[in-house]
User: Which sequence fits this backbone?
């Protein structure tokens, strides 16, 4: 055929396939929508599931960063007699001696007691309810909470009950208008104290509370002056916070802490502890497990729905191929290669998946926001999740659309043209 | 390809179909040449092998034995892609039932074969418009099949067959679904196209339709029974 020069064929152009697909979908819009329903629901559920799981994961990370994984907390619990709890009144306080004993325990880096009181702070004419922590010198070290300005509380001040205070940034802003408060006076209930330092800003906690709306004073000052009550134990250390050395196993040190406390509190072998040790990492994980479980259930539901959606696409594509058998025959007769037919039907399935994925995306974003509001879950809607969800919808459509498309491409042109 | 190479050359072409345990010999030892520019009618009762012959000539099927050369190309040497290309560039099909895409206007229907070329949008449209003008439907380009009469629909189908400038049009009972007046008009159109140099091969079982052709091939029981040249009607 040397005399005939033809331009090189490139086969069916993508824009043409797209036009055919959109026309086919529009022609059967109700049917197409019903077909996409499985994909729509599946993608929406997947987005909600991943957003909740990621939200829970992010919260876990934040809480671990906030509390540290190497922090233990010891607090008094109800005493037990004959297997029965004696109730909250039976709690025996933890004392300064307990703090000192724990500080000397192998594996412990730092220790501090912490009593808490809700008080009114007054500066000049302004007052404000704040959380007051009576703490030891090492409390900042245990909590990994630095002093931004001035200085912290010294060991000597903690023991003798110096009338000094360290303020959180919110308190500084609200009561000092952000001006330098070091050396200024602040009154807490009826006790006046000198501000010696400002804490580094921590921001909102994972429950949304303002962690910077806080005042630290020496432990002794709080219990003997600010929140003095008749029945208070004089050396009540409140809760004891322990920082475990980074290179030590928390669980091992926790066991040693429990043993030491049992000995100090003279608990008989076989009797229950009358104190409780909280391991923050475990506590946080337990709390997040619920949210993770919910996310997992949603993910399973979403996977099921996506498979059903994929089968729906396969079904409707088979119907479409059968309905258009003569059209396929015609296209083959006028020059479509079998792979042009394959492309055409794959593109149609892909468009079904893409539209389903995009509708599911909108529904998923709405569902996530609803879940965040109603369930008060922490959620994280990341662009990667959203893009991934649409990608999954397309992949499923291509996967389940391949068989019908291949069947269309393998039709014998003569049989297809004669098909009634 | 030199000018005297036949457009169709069948040499001992046989086609067998296996139906369960039986082998049906649909075409037996057909030898025939069709030159460029001819107007050939293929006749015969159903089961005579004429449809099988047309499917082979249309590069939609391969002979079981023998050699079939279309526009100088031996079909046995062509793969699926090359056969598709041959159909696209060298052949134009016209069917009894028109085979137009529903809810698609005449212009888009005519452009269908061009979808499988690398032609740009503008060129496709120009070609399709020219083809529709050639069959006398310049005023109906935006009409869908439902808005066109049977004769007009067949004209759209003929425009579609012409649009990629094929060397040969293969028409399978093109007037079978039309009344006699319209059928006559369509046959005159084929005659005009043939006068302009397009080779036409059409299958029919009606003598008055076949009379438009200049050569009649008659099939019976899978064999080419007669090959008669006629004076143009």
Assistant:
């Amino acid at each position: 055929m040397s005399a005939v020069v033809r331009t090189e064929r490139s086969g069916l152009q993508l824009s043409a396939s797209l036009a055919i697909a959109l026309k086919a979908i529009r022609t059967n819009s109700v049917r197409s929508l019903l077909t996409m329903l499985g994909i729509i629901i599946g993608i929406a559920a997947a987005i909600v599931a991943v957003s909740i799981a990621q939200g829970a994961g992010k919260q876990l990370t934040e809480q671990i960063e906030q509390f540290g994984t190497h922090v233990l907390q010891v607090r008094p619990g109800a005493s037990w007699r004959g297997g029965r709890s004696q109730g909250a009144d039976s709690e025996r306080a933890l004392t300064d001696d307990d703090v000192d004993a724990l500080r000397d325990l192998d594996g412990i880096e730092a220790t501090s007691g912490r009593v808490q009181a809700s008080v009114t702070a007054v500066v000049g004419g302004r007052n404000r309810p704040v959380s007051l922590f009576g703490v030891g010198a090492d409390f900042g070290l245990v909590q990994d909470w630095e002093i931004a300005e001035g200085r912290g509380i010294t060991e000597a001040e903690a023991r003798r009950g110096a009338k000094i205070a360290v303020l959180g940034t919110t308190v500084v802003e609200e009561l000092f208008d952000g001006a330098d408060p070091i050396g200024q006076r602040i009154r807490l209930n009826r006790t006046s104290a000198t501000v010696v330092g400002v804490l580094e800003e921590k921001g909102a906690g994972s429950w949304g509370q303002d962690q910077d709306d806080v005042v630290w004073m020496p432990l002794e000052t709080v219990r003997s002056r600010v929140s003095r009550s008749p029945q208070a134990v004089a050396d009540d250390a409140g809760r004891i916070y322990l920082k475990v050395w980074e290179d030590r196993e928390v669980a091992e040190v926790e066991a040693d802490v429990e043993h030491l406390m049992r000995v100090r509190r003279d608990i008989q072998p076989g009797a229950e502890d009358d104190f409780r040790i909280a391991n923050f990492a475990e506590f946080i994980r337990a709390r997040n497990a619920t949210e993770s479980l919910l996310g997992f259930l949603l993910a399973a539901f979403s996977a099921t729905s996506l498979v059903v959606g994929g089968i729906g696409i396969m079904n409707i594509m088979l119907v479409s191929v059968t309905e258009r058998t003569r059209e396929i025959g015609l296209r083959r007769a006028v020059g479509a290669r079998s792979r042009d037919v394959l492309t055409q039907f794959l593109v149609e399935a892909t468009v079904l998946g893409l539209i389903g994925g995009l509708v599911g995306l909108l529904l998923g974003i709405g569902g996530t926001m609803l879940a965040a509001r109603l369930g008060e879950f922490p959620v994280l809607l990341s662009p990667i999740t959203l893009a991934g969800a649409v990608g999954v919808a397309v992949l499923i459509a291509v996967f389940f659309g391949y068989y019908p498309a291949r069947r269309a491409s393998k039709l014998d042109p003569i049989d297809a043209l004669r098909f009634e | 390809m030199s000018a005297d190479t036949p457009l169709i050359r069948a040499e001992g072409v046989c086609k067998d179909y296996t139906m369960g345990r039986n082998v049906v010999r649909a075409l037996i030892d057909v030898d025939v040449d069709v030159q460029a520019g001819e107007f050939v009618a293929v006749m015969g009762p159903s089961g005579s092998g004429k449809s099988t012959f047309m499917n082979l000539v249309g590069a939609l099927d391969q002979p079981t034995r023998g050699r079939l050369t279309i526009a100088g190309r031996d079909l046995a040497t062509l793969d699926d892609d090359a056969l598709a290309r041959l159909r696209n560039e060298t052949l134009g099909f016209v069917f009894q039932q028109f085979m137009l895409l529903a809810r698609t206007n005449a212009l888009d229907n005519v452009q269908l074969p061009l979808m499988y070329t690398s032609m740009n949008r503008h060129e496709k449209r120009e070609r399709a418009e020219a083809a529709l003008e050639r069959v006398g439907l310049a005023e109906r380009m935006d009409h869908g099949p439902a808005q066109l009469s049977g004769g007009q629909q067949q004209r759209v189908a003929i425009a579609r067959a012409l649009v990629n400038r094929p060397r040969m049009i293969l028409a399978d009972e093109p007037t079978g679904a039309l009344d006699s007046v319209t059928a006559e008009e369509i046959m005159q159109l084929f005659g005009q196209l043939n006068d302009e140099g397009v080779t036409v091969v059409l299958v029919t079982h009606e003598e008055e339709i076949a009379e438009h052709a200049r050569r009649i091939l008659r099939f019976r029981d899978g064999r080419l029974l007669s090959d008669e040249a006629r004076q143009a009607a």
